[in-house]
Write a structure and sequence with these properties.
Blueprint (H helix, E strand, L loop, with lengths): L12 E3 H10 L1 H11 L6 H14 L12 E3 L8 H17 L24 E5 L4 H10 L4 H11 L5 H10 L5 H7 L19 E5 L2 H17 L3 H5 L20 H6 L12 H4 L18 H12 L6 E4 L13 E8 L2 E7 L3 E8 L7 E6 L10 E7 L2 E6 L3 E8 L8 E3 L10 E2 L11 E7 L2 E6 L7 E5 L10 H7 L11 E13 L6 E11 L6 E7 L7 E7 L12 E7 L5 E7 L3 E8 L3 E4 L2 E6 L5 E7 L4 E3 L3
Helix pairs in contact: 1-4, 2-3, 2-4, 3-4, 6-7, 6-8, 7-8
């Protein structure tokens, strides 16, 4: 570990070339320091690029940085004065980047988006770590810039406390001793060297491809619109100015204009949910630091009613994207990460309007259907997605939140910090493509119990349950650990809840253990196109195998609480079998075609040949015949 704490207080000349050599030699360490000190609110992609930019800017401008082309040596840097000098410049810039912007002074260079390096079409972020790294990252978000800088100097640079205080003072920290006191217990210092905090070893993911394609089309449309913008500005009402990215009004209607008036928005009292008989979005209070921003709310309402050609609009299946029928209810308005977000509710839908912190270019409008929501499904709404992380606005009755990896049921859930407005700290989203080695879900705790939800790419998270249809309960984590990755098949399908039902156990032929038969049912908000999956879990298998799928079927639900499925299975000795199992309602099973046989009860095992095609059916307790899930 490099040590730059030699007590040399003399001031000696230092070549600019020596500073450049220090940057090149210690570039990964300097970039890691900048990445850890930068404010986490920037998001991982921007923190990576900004960290590289700050280190590259640490070299003084021009060939002559001081008298006779010399750079002043920092005190206590006899071991490597060039490194100590550039480290101080990187620290100072990273601390300045975390200062809030004010109207009284111009922003400093470090507070502006990085000029170079730039990456187009990709998002870059360090490799994901484990639960300990996630907990450390969440803890660092609770510290201010000087506190994070003190942690970095102690953990990465291994400086003693007195040297940390001195370096922080030279970096411009007003109270270095308080920053050192805030830096906490050094027991976890080794985690600072984890790959999760290394912005030189990166993963790349594409940006939103569909949104990027729409932006290109929108840019072409915007170019054509410039030809007629003069006429649009001459329209009554001032054209686009007051309504941001909304299209021009095509008609005047008193009721429609009332729905667009921010003063008419419904605002629920903060404690209304405590006494209300309803436990859905209608009793959520208005929260956020911009609930009084009439201009922002007017833009959100206007874009909802008339989204312009540059607005990216998305809606879950079966959700209308038209204007509200009357003044909607305000759920949230405030800055989250790098956007300003407004959440509105009209009794049937939740609308999320988002625009950049400055300007309205790139505004987005998302819709999700929420009619019939209850205490089980109105616990959270997605308020932000940045760099593969998701943040939720939780219901006012939620008292705690934690993230859990469903693939690893033996691990403890990691608590998530809640802001006073009820917004969770960022949590990694489940994978949307590639290998599925982890699947994160969030536990939401309230006085009525704990509910498990997961993100499937929409505004409303999906509730997960286990049990017989009609008696669903909180998830059986052991079952979900083998079936969680199959949730990817219902992503962006307007899903409200998913229940996993282990309906049968079957001893395998040749004494090879016992297999489990499961059925998952994804209920949708629109009450149609429910997706049902039959699953087979062999002993020792890392995940359940999908045996059958159906859409719009009543199987495995309260209207038809039964299931029947089969699979062609190969024993370790090489013999193939047709295995089948039904729920408790089946009294006998039979198979014909490529294999023939029957069995009394709800389980069947018949020898077959590889690739055999067989037809399976069963008899219910009332004597009627029933087929397999399809």
């Amino acid at each position: 570990m490099l040590n730059v704490t030699a007590p040399d207080t003399a001031t000696r000349p230092l070549d600019v070339e020596q500073a450049e050599a220090a940057i090149v030699e210690h570039y990964p360490r300097l970039v890691r320091i900048a990445y850890l000190v930068l404010p986490p609110a920037l998001g991982r992609n921007r923190r990576v690029l900004t960290a590289h930019a700050l280190v590259q800017r640490a070299l003084p401008r021009g060939r002559e940085a001081g008298p006779q082309g010399r750079v002043p040596t920092q005190r206590g840097s006899a071991a490597d004065p060039g490194y100590a000098y550039v480290r101080l410049r990187v620290l100072r810039s990273a601390l300045q980047a975390g200062l809030p912007l004010t109207f009284r002074s111009l922003p400093r260079r470090a507070q502006l988006p990085p000029g170079l390096p730039q990456v187009w079409g990709l998002r870059l972020f360090p490799r994901a770590g484990g639960a300990e790294e996630l907990a450390l990252d969440q803890w660092l978000t609770t510290l201010d810039g000087p506190g994070r800088a003190a942690c970095v100097l102690r953990a990465l640079e291994q400086l003693p406390e007195a040297e940390v205080v001195r370096v922080l003072a030279e970096a411009g920290v007003a109270d270095p001793a308080a920053a050192v006191a805030e830096s906490g217990d050094p027991a976890n210092d080794v985690l600072f060297t984890s790959p999760e905090f290394d912005p030189c070893v990166l993963q790349a993911r594409p940006t939103d491809l569909l949104r990027r394609r729409r932006h290109v089309r929108a840019a072409l449309a915007a170019g054509a619109a410039l030809l007629v913008c003069g006429a649009l500005l001459a329209l009554p009402g001032g054209g686009w100015g007051a309504d941001g990215a909304a299209a021009p009004p095509y008609a005047r209607n008193a009721a429609a204009e009332q729905a667009l008036d921010p003063g008419q928005l419904t605002r629920v009292a903060p404690a209304a949910w405590r006494t209300s008989t309803r436990t859905d979005f209608s009793v959520w209070p208005a929260r956020g630091d911009r609930v009084g921003d009439a201009a922002l709310l007017r833009r959100a309402l206007a874009v909802w009613a008339r989204p312009g050609p540059t607005v990216v609009v998305s809606a879950t299946p079966g959700t209308q994207s038209g204007p509200p029928m009357g003044p909607p209810q305000l759920l949230f308005a405030g800055a989250v990460d790098q956007a300003v977000v407004v959440l509105l509710y009209d009794g049937l839908r939740v609308a999320r309007y988002a625009e950049p912190v400055s300007g309205t270019a790139g505004a987005a409008l998302d819709f999700a259907r929420t009619d019939g929501a209850s205490a089980d499904t109105a616990n959270a709404l997605v308020v932000s997605r940045v760099d593969g992380n998701v943040r939720y606005l939780t219901a006012p009755w939620v008292t705690a939140a934690a993230v859990r990896d469903l693939v690893k049921p033996g691990e403890e859930a990691v608590p998530l910090k809640l802001t006073p407005e009820g917004i969770t700290a960022p949590a990694p989203s489940p994978p949307s493509a590639g290998a599925c080695t982890t699947w994160n879900a969030m536990e939401l705790k309230s006085a009525s119990g704990t509910r498990l939800v997961t993100d499937l790419g929409e505004l409303t998270p999906v509730r997960l349950t286990s049990g017989t249809p009609g008696t669903e309960a909180e998830p059986a984590l052991a079952d979900w650990s083998k079936s969680a990755c199959l949730l990817a098949s219902v992503r962006s399908h307007g899903v409200r809840s998913v229940n996993l039902w282990a309906y049968a156990k079957q001893p395998l032929p040749e004494g090879k253990g016992s297999a489990a038969w499961l059925c998952s049912r994804a209920e949708t908000w629109r009450g149609a196109a429910e997706r049902v999956q039959g699953q087979f879990l062999a002993p020792g298998a890392p995940a359940a195998a999908q045996t059958a799928t159906a859409e719009g079927s009543p199987a495995c639900g309260v209207r038809e609480p039964r299931a029947l499925a089969g699979v062609l299975w190969k024993a370790p000795a090489g013999q193939w079998y047709v295995l089948a199992a039904g729920s408790a309602q089946f009294t006998s099973l039979s198979v014909t075609g490529g294999a023939t046989g029957s069995a009394t009860g709800n389980r069947l095992a018949v020898k077959a040949k590889e690739g055999a095609q067989a037809e399976l059916s069963g008899t219910l307790q009332d004597g009627t015949k029933a087929g397999v899930l399809r």
